[in-house]
C-alpha cells in the first residue's frame, strides 16, 4: 500500500488498543508501515489481537495506564523494541455510567483514573522521550493525539465522570501543546461521538439510540474504521503546523441543537 500518510517506519504507541477503536487505529498504522506498540490492560484480548494481526511491526504491552511505573516501563520497552519513539495515540478509556446524584466515589474515581490520569501519565512519559530526542538534535518532531469525546465539549447525561475526564483531556491537550511547541512536539485531540464498539454497547439501549441518533445530522453511529484517518492525520507531516486543536469526528453531533 502506498503510504500517503508518510508513516513508514514511525513508531507510535496506541493505548487501549486490543479491541474497538484502538485496534482499528493500530491496524490503520500497521497497514501504512508504522511500528505499533499496542497497549491494553486486558492481556487476553491483547494476545488475541496479536495473533490475529500477526505483524512483525507490532509489539504488545499488557499495561495499566493508570499505574505510573507500568507506563514508564511500556515507553522504555517500546524504545527498546523498535529503537525509537515518534508519538502516541492516547486512547485508553473506560465507562462507568450513573446519574450524578447516584454516583459513588468509586465509580467516579475509576473513570478519572483511567481516562484522565492515565492520559496524563502516558502523555508525560512519551513527552519526556520526545523532548530528549529534540534535545539531541533529532529533526523528526514528535506527535501526540489525545482521544477525547463530545461528552467533554457538550456534557453528557448519566456519565458525569466520563464528561469531566474527557473535558480534562482537552485542557491537557492545550497545556501540553503550549509547553512543548518549542521542542517541535505537536499535541492535538480528537473528539469522537458514539462509535460502534464493545465499550459503547453498554450504553446503546434502544431509548438511548433513538434519542442520540436524532441529534446526529448524518443519522448513524460511527464505525471504528471511519475515525482512524482523521486521528492519524495529526501524526503526519501534513499536520506539522497544527497543535492544541480539537477535532470532532461525530457525524455533526457537536453542531446539532
From TrEMBL:
<dbReference type="InterPro" id="IPR057326">
    <property type="entry name" value="KR_dom"/>
</dbReference>
<keyword id="KW-0560">Oxidoreductase</keyword>
<dbReference type="GO" id="GO:0030497">
    <property type="term" value="P:fatty acid elongation"/>
</dbReference>
<dbReference type="Pfam" id="PF13561">
    <property type="entry name" value="adh_short_C2"/>
</dbReference>
<dbReference type="GO" id="GO:0016616">
    <property type="term" value="F:oxidoreductase activity, acting on the CH-OH group of donors, NAD or NADP as acceptor"/>
</dbReference>
<dbReference type="InterPro" id="IPR020904">
    <property type="entry name" value="Sc_DH/Rdtase_CS"/>
</dbReference>
<dbReference type="InterPro" id="IPR002347">
    <property type="entry name" value="SDR_fam"/>
</dbReference>
<comment type="similarity">
    <text>Belongs to the short-chain dehydrogenases/reductases (SDR) family.</text>
</comment>
<protein>
    <submittedName>
        <fullName>SDR family NAD(P)-dependent oxidoreductase</fullName>
    </submittedName>
</protein>
<feature type="domain" description="Ketoreductase">
    <location>
        <begin position="10"/>
        <end position="193"/>
    </location>
</feature>
<dbReference type="InterPro" id="IPR036291">
    <property type="entry name" value="NAD(P)-bd_dom_sf"/>
</dbReference>
Amino acid at each position: 500500500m502506498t503510504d500517503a500518510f508518510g508513516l513508514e517506519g514511525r513508531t507510535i504507541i496506541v493505548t487501549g488498543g486490543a479491541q474497538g477503536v484502538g485496534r482499528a487505529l493500530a491496524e490503520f498504522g500497521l497497514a501504512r508501515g508504522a511500528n505499533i506498540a499496542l497497549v491494553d490492560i486486558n492481556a487476553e484480548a491483547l494476545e488475541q489481537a496479536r495473533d490475529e494481526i500477526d505483524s512483525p511491526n507490532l509489539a504488545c504491552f499488557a499495561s495499566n495506564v493508570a499505574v505510573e511505573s507500568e507506563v514508564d516501563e511500556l515507553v522504555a520497552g517500546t524504545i527498546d523494541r523498535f529503537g525509537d519513539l515518534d508519538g502516541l495515540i492516547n486512547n485508553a478509556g473506560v465507562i462507568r455510567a450513573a446519574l450524578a446524584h447516584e454516583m459513588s466515589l468509586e465509580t467516579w474515581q475509576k473513570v478519572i483514573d483511567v481516562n484522565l490520569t492515565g492520559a496524563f501519565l502516558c502523555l508525560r512519559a512519551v513527552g519526556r522521550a520526545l523532548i530528549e530526542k529534540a534535545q539531541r538534535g533529532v529533526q523528526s518532531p514528535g506527535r501526540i493525539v489525545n482521544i477525547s469525546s463530545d461528552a467533554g465539549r457538550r456534557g453528557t447525561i448519566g456519565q458525569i465522570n466520563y464528561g469531566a475526564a474527557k473535558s480534562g483531556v482537552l485542557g491537557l491537550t492545550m497545556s501540553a501543546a503550549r509547553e512543548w511547541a518549542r521542542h517541535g512536539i505537536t499535541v492535538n485531540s480528537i473528539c469522537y461521538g458514539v462509535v460502534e464498539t464493545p465499550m459503547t454497547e453498554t450504553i446503546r439501549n434502544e431509548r438511548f439510540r433513538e434519542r442520540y441518533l436524532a441529534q446526529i445530522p448524518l443519522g448513524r453511529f460511527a464505525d471504528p474504521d471511519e475515525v482512524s484517518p482523521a486521528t492519524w492525520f495529526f501524526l503526519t507531516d501534513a499536520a506539522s503546523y497544527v497543535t492544541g486543536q480539537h477535532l470532532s469526528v461525530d457525524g455533526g453531533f457537536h453542531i446539532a441543537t
